Amino acid sequence: ESAEKGSYRHFMLKEIYEQPQAVQRTLEDRLAADHVLPAAFGPDASTLFAKVKKIQIVACGTSYHAGMVARYWLEGLTNTPCQVEVASEFRYRHVAVQPDTLFVTISQSGETADTLAALRHRQDNAYLASLTICNVGTSSLVRESDLALLTRAGPEIGVASTKAFSTQLVGLLLLTLAIGRARHTLAPAQEREIVDALRTLSAKLNDALAISATIEAKAQLFAEKNHALFLGRGEQFPVALEGALKLKEISYIHAEAYPAGELKHGPLALVDSDMPVVTVAPNNALLEKLKSNLQEVSARGGQLLVFADREAHLSEDEQTQVVNMPSIHPVLAPILYTIPLQLLSYYVAVLKGTDVDQPRNLAKSVTVE
Ligand code: G6P
Q1: How many CB atoms lie within 10 A of CB 2?
Q2: 338 pocket-lining for ligand 1 (C-beta < 6 Å)
Q3: What angle is formed at CA 22 by the lines to CA 185 and CA 323, rounded to 5 degrees?
């Protein structure tokens, strides 16, 4: 086991550092000069994608958070209506299926019981087709879906998912671009711009990993705390959810994520100096709104840790610590901002001395209900 970990102390840290290469593999052979090759999803995928009018995503845990990011991409970039639901709910309720809906599952293992049951028990004829974004080629989900895109993250050992998540996001962005092209709802100039940005993603992730020592130092803020709040807006809200999940899973600190605009509808009542607030603040259209949300927190004595684009010009004060992130194309920001949140939860867990790779009560793959 120690041999496989190489020089890393834990599998989780190794897997965090593998993300630039993993993402590169996910993109390999799947990009033409200015578009995504639809064959990446299986034969005739583009004919099928042209018929798609709606997308239903079903997944669990971290994979569900990837699906939530994809909804912002699919609706925002390709005007394709999209719903996302956890599999344990979806499988047991009557779903009103609209015509020409593509059924999409997301899973690292391809064996999660609820996700598999959702695929098997969906009102079969009602859907146009099924597609899975999955890391294991021989898995049940891949075998039983009409189309599949393998994420090629390589084996993930740490129970807390890291490289599986970032590669799922890449796979879902490829799906978004392929759907937008087939449906003629994505402007070619924007398509090319995102494809170009994808080619530099791996290097950007390396830049984000390079600030790990800064993040390690910030972990001190959390080691003695019992609660933490994570904030994000837009497609960064699911990134905040994923950051909170990571902290819960491996450091056993109670963490919640909120869309920053919802602060005043409840969580603000909890904010004091004992509840650190983590925020992801890329330089996007919602930045100014986010800044005023941050003021709401500091006015109540909250301690802020903000991961921000250096162009966002966020300044530090007694209550606000800012970690500058590399600039990136806004569409790819959720992938980049995932990295510091993974590192943060990792270093907090190390400080607390928990079993990082095998947190108590959790399993890597939940194959029974
Ligand atoms: C478990 C794991 C999570 C994972 C979830 C879904 O809870 O601990 O890391 O996100 O299952 O697993 P899947 O293999 O379907 O992505």
Answers
A1: 8
A2: no
A3: 85
Structure tokens at 264: 């005043």
Contact in structure between 101 and 54 (CB atoms under 8 Å): yes
pTM of the model: 0.96
Does the pLDDT value for residue 100 go beyond 70? yes
**Which residues touch 171 (CB under 8 Å, ≥6 apart)?**
26, 133, 149, 151
In the numeric block, the tokens 């599986």 are attached to 164
Summarised one tens digit per residue, pLDDT across range 25-65 is 999 999 999 999 999 999 999 999 999 999 999 999 999 99
Question: Other C-beta atoms within 10 Å of 315: how many?
Answer: 6
Determine whether the shortest distance from the Cβ of 62 to ligand 1 is under 6 A.
yes
- The ligand 1 atom at the shortest distance from the C-alpha of residue 363 is 8
Helix-helix angle 201-209:19-27, to 10 degrees: 170
For residues 68 and 70, give the distance between their C-alpha atoms in angstroms, rounded to a whole number: 5
| Alpha-carbon torsion, ordered 367, 91, 238, 359, to 10 deg | -20
Residue position matching structure tokens 């004992």: 274
- C-alpha 13/C-alpha 111 separation (Å) is 24
- E-strand ranges in 114-213 read 129-134, 147-150
